[in-house]
């Protein structure tokens, strides 16, 4: 089964359509598109997508409703079909400097709706002759302050950086449900819910328990950076909902494991040690858009080679749905060192090989063969072996071959080296700062 998600961050819909064949050939099972709700058509900055002006219109700098329909159709015509997930922003509306800033979309926009047929052409649902939200639909409180980020009530009911925070009134809930049902009826296969830790349980249940939406794949962004935050936000989310989530606990464990002095032993059994989400609720990642694009999170960036090794881990391990981030060098203006780091991901041979391995061993059980502070080796079923050496020196690792095809001929998916495994014990050579993903030769043709 193909399940790896390609995150087409702030990418124009036509460009995604043109890349569908490459994405399919690279082995991806789904595409996460940028937020499609109406935002400033002239705003090319990525953060504009996260400031919706109206639920009822699908239009932005990235394209409109027809391009989205074309994208869904092309993805669903591939074999196997590529699923299309939409990034949805429903916690808040746009921060706009205008009179009556809590009326959405506002009188100026309503006048545009009346005179410009573009808006009716991109109508998702509803009546554009009327406003959508008024001041009564918002939690009119102050911004969340730095010392309040561990206060769950303030995080839920406070404003996020001046973004008007919607309340969970019956009218708001109705509009959110209507919008998501309309998107589901368009053909979207799932939704990423942005800033979900800022929403009430009532707001989440409102759409998650709706039949047309519950049949889709849902995952939320419950951003945490410590065990303390996980107790406050992740643990209640897992208890109170059925939705999947970004696996920030595993990401924190990965960062700790790959830091200088950290140990790869932490990645041997992270779920059992409460260092990862349950396997069936996790969207795994080693980089997401908030990390390079928000200065407050850039300290979470892995070294480039560690990022490569971490990808081998999340695409080699069992459990979770891996997400691969791709952008268009938009962080380079401020951070020139980012150039080409996350662009043209579909053409990167290492990621291509890792996804191929992931798809070949999908559903096979994982068993640890060897672990130390700098080396981790595990098998997937009886035909796949993953070996990671984060250290600066080469390693010869001996392990028991029970459970593997023996004798067996294996090829490293990443480097294309070949080896013959035989005997009760086997010694594997792992060069410094490298990952290997060995696949029994019969599976390389799948």
Automatic annotation (TrEMBL):
Protein name in UniProt: Alpha-amylase
Keywords linked to the UniProt accession: Carbohydrate metabolism, Glycosidase, Hydrolase
Domain Glycosyl hydrolase family 13 catalytic positions: 3-358
Enzyme nomenclature, EC number: 3.2.1.1
Pfam families: Alpha-amylase, Alpha-amylase_C
Catalytic activity: Endohydrolysis of (1->4)-alpha-D-glucosidic linkages in polysaccharides containing three or more (1->4)-alpha-linked D-glucose units
Family, per entry: Belongs to the glycosyl hydrolase 13 family.
Native source species: Nostoc flagelliforme FACHB-838
């Amino acid at each position: 089964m193909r399940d790896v998600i390609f995150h087409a961050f702030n990418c124009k819909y036509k460009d995604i359509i043109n890349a569908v064949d490459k994405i399919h050939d690279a082995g991806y099972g789904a595409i996460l598109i940028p937020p499609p709700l109406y935002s400033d058509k002239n705003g090319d900055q990525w953060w504009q997508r996260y400031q919706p002006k109206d639920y009822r219109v699908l239009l932005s700098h990235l394209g409109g409703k027809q391009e989205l329909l074309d994208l869904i159709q092309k993805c669903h015509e591939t074999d196997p079909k590529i699923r299309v997930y939409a990034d949805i922003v429903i916690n808040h509306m746009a921060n706009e400097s205008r009179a009556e800033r809590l009326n959405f979309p506002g009188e100026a926009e309503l006048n545009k709706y009346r005179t410009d047929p573009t808006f009716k052409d991109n109508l998702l649902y509803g009546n554009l002759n009327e406003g959508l939200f008024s001041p009564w639909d918002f939690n009119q409180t102050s911004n969340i302050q730095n010392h309040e980020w561990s206060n769950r009530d303030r995080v839920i009911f406070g404003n996020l950086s001046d973004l008007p925070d919607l309340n969970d009134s019956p009218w708001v809930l109705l509009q959110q449900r209507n919008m998501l049902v309309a998107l589901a009826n368009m053909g979207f296969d799932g939704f990423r819910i942005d800033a979900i830790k800022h929403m009430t349980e009532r707001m989440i249940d409102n759409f998650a328990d709706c039949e047309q939406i519950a049949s889709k794949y849902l995952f939320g962004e419950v951003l945490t950076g410590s065990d303390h935050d996980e107790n406050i936000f992740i643990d209640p989310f897992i208890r109170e909902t059925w939705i999947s989530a970004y696996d920030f606990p595993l990401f924190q464990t990965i960062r700790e494991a790959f830091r200088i002095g950290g140990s790869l032993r932490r990645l041997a059994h992270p779920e059992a040690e409460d260092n990862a989400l349950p396997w069936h609720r996790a969207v795994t990642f080693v980089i997401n858009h908030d990390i390079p694009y928000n200065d407050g999170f850039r300290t979470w960036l892995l070294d480039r080679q560690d990022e490569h090794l971490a990808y081998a881990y999340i695409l080699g391990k069992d459990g979770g749905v891996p997400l691969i981030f791709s952008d268009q060098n938009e962080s380079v203006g401020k951070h020139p060192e980012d150039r080409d780091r996350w662009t043209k991901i579909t053409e990167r041979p290492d990621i291509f090989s890792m996804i191929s391995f992931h798809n070949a061993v999908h559903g096979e059980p994982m068993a640890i063969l060897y672990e130390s502070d700098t080396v981790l080796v595990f098998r997937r079923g009886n035909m796949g072996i993953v070996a990671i050496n984060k250290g600066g020196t080469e390693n010869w690792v001996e392990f028991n071959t029970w459970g593997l095809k023996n004798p067996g001929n294996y090829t490293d998916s990443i480097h294309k080296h070949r080896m013959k495994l035989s005997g009760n014990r086997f010694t594997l050579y792992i060069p410094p700062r490298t990952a290997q993903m060995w696949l029994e030769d019969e599976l390389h043709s799948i």
